[in-house]
Structure formats: C-alpha cells, structure tokens
Amino acid sequence: MRLQLSPELEAFREEMRTFFTTQVPQHIRDSVAARRHVSKEHYVETQRVLHAAGLAVPHWPVEWGGRDWTPLQRHIWREEMQLACVPEPLAFNASMIGPVIAAFGDQEQKERFLPGTANLDIWWCQGFSEPDAGSDLASLRTAAVRDGDDWVVNGQKTWTTLGQHADWIFCLVRTDPTAEKKQRGISLLVFPMDSPGVTLRPIELIDGSFEVNEVFFEDVRVPAENLIGEENRGWDYAKFLLGNERVGIARVGSTKRLLAQAKEHAREITADGRPLSEDPRMAARIAEVENELLALELTALRVVANSADGKPHPASSVLKLRGSELQQAATELIVDIAGPLSLASSAGEGSDVPDWARVATPEYLNHRKVSIYGGSNEVQRTIIAGSILGL
Amino acid sequence: MDFDFDSEQNDLREAVRGLLTRVYGDSESRRRVTTAEPGFDDKTWSRLAEMGILGLPFAEEDGGMGAGPVEVAVVAEEIGCVLAPEPFVEAVVLAGGLVAARGSAAQRSELLGALAEGSLLPAFAHAEPGTRWTASAAAVTATPDGDGWSLTGVKEPVPHGARADVLLVSAVVEGGTGLFLVRGDAAGLTRTGYRTHDGGRAASVRFAGTPAEALGEGGDATAAIERALAEARIAYGHEAIGAMDTALRTTAAYLKTRKQFGVPLSKFQALTFRAADMYVSLELARSVALWASMVADAGGDVVSAADRSRLQVSRASRHVGKEAIQLHGGIGVTAEYSIGHYTSRLTAIDHVLGDGDWALSRLAERVSDHETVDPLGAPYAG
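^ Those are the sequences you sent over. The predicted structure of the assembly is below.
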C-alpha cells in the first residue's frame, strides 16, 4: 500500500499534462471547456496531433501505434486528457473497432484499416442497437445474406452516434437466423456509409442537438472480405469491444472539471446578498459530490493498479454505474447554480446571460443518456448482482 | 501508487482472522461475551497482546511493534468482520495514540508497555453531555493542585470508561484543552458503567476534585486530540468496512436460500438490484478508507482525509446497514440472528466520533479552498 506515484509515473503524468496543455490547439480546448459543440474538424485535428505524438491509441498493439503502457499509465493519460479539456480520440475508432480489428481481423484488414482508424482518416460509426434490440442487443434482426462474393444487408440500426460524420460503419448483422442461441448467429461486417442502399436519418435530441441517427439498409452489397473475424462469432467481438477500456467510462477527469466550473459559477451568482458559494447548503452539496467523485477516482485507481494480471477487478463494474451518476449530478448542480438563468438556453446576442448558464440545461438534459448508453445502469446492476454477488 | 497489501500485512490479516473467527465465528458466542462483563473476552484480549496487536502502532522503544496505519487498518477490518467486541480502536488507536503522541518517555514506557502486554486498559474520556464531536473540552476543568492537577466535571459517554485502568481525560486549561491521566482508583472518581446498544460498554465518569497527572508537558493539546481523533476515525472506517462486508455477504447468502412464493428471494430483481447498490456503496467507501490510511502512512493531511473517509463510510454504513435488515425481513430485527447486530454496531461507529453530516459540514467549509481534489497530490501525499 503506497499513496505516491513512483518518480517515473510522476514524470509521466507531467509529460502528459504538458503535452495536452501546450500541443493541442487552445481554441479547441476552450470550446470543450465552455462545453460548446465540438466539430468534426476539431475532433480530426486533435486526434492527428495526438497520433503524431503516439498518444491517440496507446492501448493498441505496439505495431499499430500502441505504447505497451500499464493500465495505470493509460488511466493517467486519459485523466490528464480530460482535465486539459482535450477532445478524446474518437471512441468508435480508438476504443471500439480498432482494437477489434487488431485482435480478430486478418492481416489485410489490419493494413487496410488500422492506420487510417488511428489517424481518424476514416471516421467510424457503430451499428449495434436496433429499434427492438436495446439492452437486449442479441435479439437484433438486421440480416446479412450471402450472395456470391457479397453479403446483402437489410434492416435498421439506431442510436448511431455521429453517424452523420461517418465514412464507415461497423455493424452487427444476423448471418444465421437458425442458430440455437440468438448470440450464435451474429457476425461483424464493415462497409462505407456511402454504399448504395444506406440511408441515414438524424434524430433530434431533447437538448436540440443532433448526435444520433437511424441508419437504414436496403439491399446493401458488402464484399465478403469486409467480414471481421469469423462468421457467426460477432457476439464475442461485440463483448470484447464493449468490455474494452471499461475504466475510461468513469470519466472522472471530465466530471472533476465540471465540478471545478460549478464552484467558480457559484462564486459568480449572488443569493441573498452573498455569493451562492457561501450558502452552507450549496457548499455542502458541492462538497458531497466532490467526495463521491474522490471515492470513484480512488476506486478507478484501485482497479487499474490491480489489473496488471489481466483479470478484471470486481470493483470495475462500479465505475460505469457511479461514473454516469456523478456526471449527471455535476450537470444538475450547474443547472441549479444557474437558477433562473438556466432558462435562457437559446438566448442569442443581446442577452446578458453568460455562456455557461445557457448551455447548462441542454447539457443536463443531454447527460440523461450516460446512464443509458454503454450498458444501462440497470444492466450494470444485473452484472453486479449476478457475477459478483452470485444472485 | 499501490493498493495491494504486502505479504506481511496479509499474514497479519490471516493471523487476526484466524483468532477472531475461532472465538466469534458463531454469532451466538459474541452474544454471550457481550452480555457478560466486561463486554469483551479477556482471553482474546491476552491473545491479541501475545500477537503484538495491542502494541501494533507504538514505537519499539515504548514496547510496541512500530507498525503503521495500514497494519492498524488490517486489524480493524478483521475486528469489524466478526464484530469482535475487544476495544482495539478505543484503547490502542485512540487512548494509546494520545499517550504515544503527547506522553513523556516515562508515561509512554509505563502505559504503552502495559497496554501492549494486555495488562492495562486505557480509555479516552472526552465526550461531554450536551456537546458533540469537538476536539476541545468545555465542562470538565483542570486546576493546578500541588505538584499535580485536580479535575472537576462529567464525561459521558466514555467507551469502556468503567473497566478502564487509566483514563485519559481532556479538560479545560488556560489557553485551551489539556490532557490528563487519572488512575482508576483515584479519589473523587465516580464511574457508572452501562451497556451500549451494540453490545459495547460506556460509562458516566464524574470528577470531583479528582487528582490527575498532566500528560507529557501539559498545555494545550487540542491539535494532538484532533489528530488522534482523525486516526481513530480512519481506523473505525476500516472496522465499518469489515462489518459491511460481512453484512452484504450474509444478505446475499440469505437471498439465495430463503424461499417465498416458491422461489429463492434472489429471483426478485427488486431485491437483487438493492443488493447490487449495497455493493457499490461498500466498494466506494472501501476505496476512501484505504486511501485515508495511505494518507496517514505518507504523512499527509490526516484530518482532512479522515473527514473524507468519515463522510463516505457514514453514508455507506447507513445504506448497507438498513438494507441488510430490510432484505432479510423480520428475522433481521431479531436479537438471535446476526444481521441486526451489524447494523447496530455500524450505527454506533457512525456516532461515536462524528457522523457523515458532521464531516460534510467540515468539508463544506473548505470546499472553496481548492479547485479540484487530487488524491495523489497536495495536501494528501505528504
């Protein structure tokens, strides 16, 4: 048991901090700090800066740009990135399809896709959920039928995040409708979003943003070489993909930043003749979220410091559940600090409401998603009850 | 940074667990021991002394083992796992800790040596009726009397105050709060002991011109008291983690075996989800408890770390303790079944040195002093 980082890790942390705060363009980090919309160009520019320095895909195999870091180093890398308001490498590329292709793709697929995936030359999107297959993903119905050298895909995906920017999609499709277990008849196909027969329809979210989409497939012809791994093994790859970087999903650094902003805003608002930050109830609420975030961060550290042997630490299942709740608690806190100013979400020029208060409620509403995606919190509770408590 | 126990610490855990499980593995034997006086088992206390546990954190020249906060944490957690009633945190960490911090060489050698051997039980007489959880004294006063001092006033509740061979007493002196030693057979000392709801013991202790000896150099000891209380809060945090761990495991086992409507209770998602939430509370609290001991070990800000541990452990203790009973149903509130005793002990720990809201108030007062909390940096890394 030892609290301090080793001198090597201290130096590593400093190196990360320095890089992120000096090499990633300030205007991009400012826009993340202000919680403004991050554009496609900003994502691409940032990921290329990171990749040039070997910091976009450190968790990949070394020959494809990985760094062979320990889980603790990866944790520090991610935390420092979030604290510095750096847009993270696109998850669909860096955490999802990249590691799957690196682990299960053939050599030709690796050479064809991995360099562009790491550098964000290819923007990937995820074709997993369907209207009738949400938490119960394995009941998906989008079908691929073999026809000569092609697969012919028909069906519909939904919740496809940032699909409007995507060049390619990785898609779970049913290739054996007769399989005894529904998990057994699923394969993983990749194809360009401009393939004939692909139609994308944006879904407007409750905060007015356009992040997710429905994607329709009508007789989309996908060459057989675009099957990743083995036919009917897609469920295994999906589980691998979703289990990848479970620790990162706690988003501690990002919530820390939100909480620091909440404190700052509470000083700017006057309530009953004094700064809101001096109101004992508000101070206690901030202090309690701060302590819970500390508990989450320490749990993440326990997990990464311990997972060197490859087995997931049982406490890792806490991270998604509590991480999402605390992201939500922080966004809710900022809405409450804004108070009546939080109504001015659509105010334009000529309004005196500060930017942070304008984005507060849309962000709060948007963040309801975080306890739903990536395995809803109810799915997480099922996992804890089943695999940890044996219930 | 490393959250793993080393092999010596694991050996220590195994040894303590072995002893305590033999004595208290069956909850009925704990009931027997806590029903009789002095509320703990003298033989087990002697065994702990033989194993070096009662001198664990003290310097070797004072008769101790020279171990650190992490070893203390290991023992406290094992105490909590079986609700062992032996007053390890009360006597060793808190009362002994004050002697170690403030006592003269002669006092340290006499008191800590005897405590380590199991022949002397010290208790810290600090709480006063009508006040709560402060580091200073208000109602008990000390006045110079010849070569020594004389104390007047009432301390209550004093954990193990009736059985204690020597009392460490906080009392008002000029310029603050001083610490004094009062022998159990001192004149003008009246002690009325009673059982606490968790099977422990406490006492009302009255001083009427009672002769006392200053601890160490005397003078204001508020900072030393604050620090000793912080170390005890951290150790109690581990005792609570041990108790919660057993409470959760007992509850999960019960859900698998108890049948209603023809099926085990574990078939009801309304129950299993609540058990999952108990696990979340426990693991988050465990992380902070471990961290607080690492902060103490590293020489960081132990008072702040203790407040953070206290808040997290308090919230978790209430959650886990209440749900453990509810998920059991009626049997959970019976004295003959173990689970309710866990909740009772968790409730006692929660109130003895400051509850979660109390810790939160202290943290809230300082929340604007920092932008973010870095658990590996200042002021915690030492």
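Chain B touches chain A through 52 residues (CB under 8 Å). Residues 7-120 of chain B form a domain with the Butyryl-Coa Dehydrogenase, subunit A; domain 1 fold (CATH 1.10.540.10).

Shout if you want it in another format.
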